[in-house]
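Hi R.,

Here's the input for the coenzyme A complex you asked about:
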Amino acid sequence: MKSTIRPFHPEDLDALKRLTVESFKGVTLEQNVEHCLGVLNGHDWRWRKARHIADDATANPSGIFVAESDGQIIGYISTLIDRDAGKGRIPNLAVDGAARGEGLGRRLIEHALDYFRREGLAYAIIETMAQNEIGQHLYPSCGFVEVARQVHFARKL
Ligand SMILES: CC(C)(COP(=O)(O)OP(=O)(O)OC[C@H]1O[C@@H](n2cnc3c(N)ncnc32)[C@H](O)[C@@H]1OP(=O)(O)O)[C@@H](O)C(=O)NCCC(=O)NCCS
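And here is the predicted structure with coenzyme A in place:
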């Protein structure tokens, strides 16, 4: 599938939220929490996960890049910058199920890394869930080295 990567526009947000919710099924901490504790505060995991990309768009809209094919949004990557630390972070990345396995995820990562370099940053970080086999394959193959594993806990109040 031929695709181009362009900067984010605010009117993309609803489409990015939809893509996020569709893409992250099975690979998001928010769903793990719901699996263990049930629906919380009247909101399911999709509601919470969709807010992540909205938060990214508020924090650093010029660091979100959108992949399009035939005018349809088929992927995106979001980034955050900590300029004092020289750190770029990739909090969210998604490619539509029908467009996966063709190198678009890798292209989006390379696009974000080029953006970080242009911004003069020193290093980049990205996280993935232990259950996310694709992330654990893709990120090392894009030059990231594993630096830590974290264990998440949650309880009802
Ligand atoms: C992660 C994601 C963005 C990758 O998008 P993509 O366009 O398919 O990525 P690419 O085609 O560039 O690369 C996918 C790589 O994973 C590999 N892969 C696919 N299925 C795999 C599996 N089950 N286990 C391990 N590796 C796998 C592919 O072979 C490819 O590697 P290669 O280039 O060395 O052959 C996409 O799978 C996605 O949206 N997943 C759901 C959301 C998500 O997990 N986001 C990241 C959160 S950390």
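One thing worth noting: The longest strand covers residues 72-82.

Cheers,
M.
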